[in-house]
Write a structure and sequence with these properties.
Order of helices and strands: EEEHEHEHEEEHEHHH
CATH architecture of the largest domain: 2-Layer Sandwich
CATH superfamily of the largest domain: ATPase, nucleotide binding domain
Mean pLDDT: 91
Structural class: alpha/beta
Largest sheet: 5 strands, mixed
Helix content: 25-40%
Strand order of the largest sheet: 3-2-1-4-5
Strand content: 25-35%
Shape: globular
Length: 227
């Protein structure tokens, strides 16, 4: 099966083509035909679709050959995250193939070491998104808190390695020299049996974990903020 992957949960936009011959149980079951990544804090909407077109061309895959789309659903900042999710879902709808969502932290964990692993990414506002794993299986999270609160929560608990946003990760334990953002192989491996499902289970559900900074007009009016 040929799978398009899209993730915009971090400042690094990741797009690519993965291939599997059976439901993936680990990254060893995934072949990467192409992977493109661009670090860009803003303006994801301008580059995601061109990156998809380039990934298809580089991998020699026609869009009609795709079997499904795997989309990272966060957690991540509201604006950036919804760009990738909307693009991936629209692409799947246009081709009549399913779109499957995965936790973006799971994708990072999939390429990390076995044992007790903590994955953290930048949530802005001086907070981090985080989740805990044991042998690549999520046991807690995803959640969002200030680093000090996370340290207090984890006090006394065994953390063998930490992956993800290095700037904050190293305070919690030994840093894993593995991909710090979602990858094609991690996204596909995290999809598991869903990659072989012919139909989507429903609309993709984002992990925002908190309300966006930007309110809709209706929300501003309800809050008495009409201007």
């Amino acid at each position: 099966m040929l799978l398009l992957t899209v993730d915009t949960s971090t400042p690094t936009v990741v797009v690519g083509i993965g291939e599997v011959s059976r439901p993936p149980e680990s990254i060893a079951d995934v072949d990467v035909r192409c992977e493109l990544s661009v670090e860009r804090a803003r303006g994801h909407a301008e580059i995601v679709t061109p990156m998809i077109v380039e990934a298809l061309a580089n991998s020699g895959v026609d869009k009609s050959d795709l079997d499904a789309v795997i989309v990272g659903c966060g957690p991540g900042p509201f604006t950036g995250l919804r760009v990738g999710m909307a693009t991936g879902e629209a692409f799947a709808d246009g081709l009549g193939i399913p779109a499957h969502g995965v936790c973006s932290l799971d994708a990072i964990a999939a390429t990390g070491p076995a044992g007790s692993l903590l994955v953290v990414t930048d949530a802005r506002r001086r907070e981090i998104y985080y989740a805990r794993y044991v042998d690549h299986v999520r046991t807690h999270g995803p959640s969002v808190q200030a680093p000090a609160a996370v340290a207090e929560e984890l006090a006394g608990q065994q953390i063998d390695h930490v992956a993800g946003w290095r700037e904050q990760a190293e305070q919690f334990g030994p840093y894993a020299e593995t991909p710090s953002v979602p990858t094609v192989v991690g996204l596909v491996a995290s999809s598991g049996a869903a990659a072989f499902t012919d139909t989507a289970t429903g609309p993709l559900t984002p992990w925002y974990l908190r309300r966006p900074d930007a309110l809709t007009l209706a929300e501003r009016e309800q809050a008495g903020g009409r201007r």
